[in-house]
Every structure is written in structure tokens, then in C-alpha cells.
Automatic annotation (TrEMBL):
Species of the source: Podarcis muralis
Coiled coil: none
One of the GO biological process terms: reticulophagy
Protein name: Testis expressed 264, ER-phagy receptor
Any one GO CC term of the record: nucleus
Low complexity: bias regions: 271-280
Taxon lineage: Eukaryota, Metazoa, Chordata, Craniata, Vertebrata
Highest taxon in the source lineage: Eukaryota
Length: 328
């Protein structure tokens, strides 16, 4: 009997613990509906004391603790510039701080000195005309984890479906609510000097990379052009040599052409260095064009035949004279 009593008591304690945890999660916003909308921002212009950081967003808790320890009564704020799903967590940029004043109200000089003493910087953010926003209950520390996992996903879907340009992401911890704000206007005013400097360096590095790639492409193109020119020059030299040989072979049979014409043709073939095989085409045209080339060649052959006939005639006449003298 005692054993069953102990088991029942233990089961009741476990059930009570589970119910407590479940109630705590519900109170923290487990079943809270996330409503995303576009409209006027939930704040006017604000003066912020901040520290800029590069690294995983999960490390931001240290800065929240530091800023709250300086002045616990002030509202906390965080700005996230990069999407951790597309950017290396070690390269994500963000800032964390406290809102010193809002609207026309001036911040306390004593509070400003305290934040400056601990390395914080002061900046003023204007109120954008239109924003994408959502709210989530801020009742327990668990609310922060629930909000991060649920609200940012809803914001991503809303912005993507409507193809909006909304950045950066602001989280303002005010009262018992967390305000998530994405400016649709005056976005550049939310970029602190440290962020602008990093953006400038990033653009310079990207421009240098593009210039280096273009130079490499030019070098490759230049090498290809040089190779092509070398091939053309070699081919032209070969063609020119072949043309010279052909000209020297035909020159004895072209006595009807003057030496100047042969020289001019040779110079012309060398000048056509960009056209492969042009010299041979010109020779074919001269041989088959209007018949002048063949006529000259026939005349040259005829002149050689006449010379052979005359030589035979002069050789034959002295023999005939000797025979006549012998008969006498």
C-alpha cells in the first residue's frame, strides 16, 4: 500500500511539473498569433546608446546585459543588419544598446556620460514613414526565444510575398512587448558609421575583385590573340615562300612580261599577309582569266621553237656548201 502511494505521489508531482512548464510556455507566448502588418512605426525619433558588433547573433546577450546594468529603467534596442540564414554567422553585423530618449525629449546628460564611459556611442534614429512590423509578448526570458523563432519567420514570409525592401531589423523591448520593425523608408539613416565603413570596404573589395577578374580575362584574350597572330604570320610566310618558288619557276617562260611586273606581283603577294593562299589564287586567275597569260606562254614557247629551227638551218647550210665544193 505504501509503494502505490509513493508511485501515485511521484506521478502527481511529474504531472504538476509538466502542467507548470506548459503554463509557463503559454504565458511566454507559445500560442500567441503573430500578426505582421505595414504602417506607421510604433516610435518617433529616438536617441540610442549602442555598441556595434560583428559575429553570431547569439552572442548579443552579453551586450544586452551590459547596457541594462548601466541603466535598468531604459528600453533595450537591437538592430540586425544581416540575414543569418544567408550570411556566415561570424560575419553578421548588429548593434545592441538602450534608448536614451524619444521624440523631443532630451537624454539625461548624466546617463549619456555613463554610457560613454563604458564605451558606448550615441546616435539618433529618425522615425520612418512606413514600416513592416509585428509584436510579441515579453513576459519571461522564454519570450525572447519564442519571438526569435516565430516572428522573424513571419516577417520573412510577409516581405518575400509582397516583394518589399525592408531592412534592417529592429527589436525594441518596451514594457511587456517586443516590437519588431523593418523600415520601408529612410533605411540608410539606420546604418551607423561602423556599418557604413564596413559597407564601403566591402564595395571596394568587390570592385577590386571584379577589376582583377577583368584583367585576367584581358590577359587570356591577349594571349589567344598573340597565338592567332603567330599562326597567321607562320601561314603567311609559308604561302609567300611557295609563291616565290612558283614565280621563279614560271619566270623563264614569261619573258613577255617585264621584270617590274614580276616584282610588283611578288610585293603584292607579300602585302596580303592576312589572306591565306591569296598568292595561289591570283596565279590561277592570271592563267585562266582573259587568255593573256596563256597567249604569252604560247608566244614564249613559239619563240623557243623558232630559235631551234634557225639553229638547225644554220647548221645544215655549211654542210651543203661543203658537199657542192667536193663535187666540183
Amino acid at each position: 500500500m505504501a509503494d502505490w502511494l509513493l508511485i501515485g505521489l511521484f506521478a502527481a508531482l511529474v504531472a504538476l511539473l509538466l502542467l507548470t512548464l506548459f503554463g509557463f510556455a503559454v504565458y511566454s507566448g507559445l500560442f500567441t498569433e503573430v500578426i505582421v502588418s505595414a504602417g506607421l512605426p510604433p516610435f518617433s525619433s529616438i536617441t540610442v546608446a549602442y555598441k556595434f558588433q560583428v559575429g553570431p547573433y547569439g552572442d548579443s546577450g552579453r551586450l544586452f546585459t551590459e547596457s541594462c546594468s548601466i541603466s535598468p529603467r531604459l528600453c533595450s534596442i537591437a538592430l540586425y543588419y544581416d540575414n543569418p540564414h544567408t550570411v556566415d554567422p561570424e560575419k553578421c553585423r548588429y548593434l545592441v544598446g538602450s534608448i536614451l530618449s524619444e521624440g523631443e525629449e532630451k537624454p539625461s546628460e548624466e546617463v549619456v556620460r555613463m554610457f560613454l564611459k563604458y564605451g558606448f556611442k550615441i546616435i539618433n534614429f529618425p522615425a520612418p514613414s512606413h514600416v513592416v512590423m509585428a509584436t510579441f509578448p515579453y513576459t519571461t526570458p522564454l519570450s525572447i526565444h519564442l519571438a526569435v523563432n516565430r516572428v522573424h519567420t513571419a516577417l520573412d514570409v510577409y516581405i518575400k510575398e509582397r516583394k518589399l525592401c525592408a531592412h534592417p531589423r529592429l527589436e525594441i523591448y518596451k514594457g511587456n512587448k517586443i516590437h519588431f520593425v523593418c523600415p520601408l523608408a529612410r533605411q540608410g539613416d539606420f546604418y551607423v558609421p561602423e556599418m557604413k565603413e564596413l559597407e564601403k570596404k566591402s564595395r571596394a573589395a568587390a570592385a577590386a575583385a571584379v577589376a582583377e577578374a577583368e584583367d585576367a580575362q584581358i590577359d587570356i584574350t591577349g594571349a589567344d590573340t598573340l597565338s592567332e597572330n603567330s599562326s597567321v604570320s607562320l601561314e603567311t610566310t609559308t604561302n609567300s615562300r611557295d609563291t616565290s618558288v612558283a614565280t621563279s619557276i614560271l619566270s623563264p617562260f614569261t619573258s613577255s612580261h617585264s621584270r617590274d611586273e614580276v616584282d610588283n606581283r611578288s610585293e603584292h603577294s607579300y602585302s596580303e599577309s592576312g589572306a591565306s593562299g591569296s598568292s595561289f589564287e591570283e596565279l590561277d586567275l592570271e592563267g585562266n582569266g582573259d587568255g593573256d597569260g596563256m597567249a604569252g606562254l604560247s608566244a614564249d614557247l613559239g619563240s623557243f621553237e623558232d630559235q631551234d629551227t634557225a639553229k638547225a638551218k644554220w647548221t645544215k647550210e655549211p654542210i651543203a656548201l661543203e658537199k657542192e665544193r667536193g663535187e666540183e
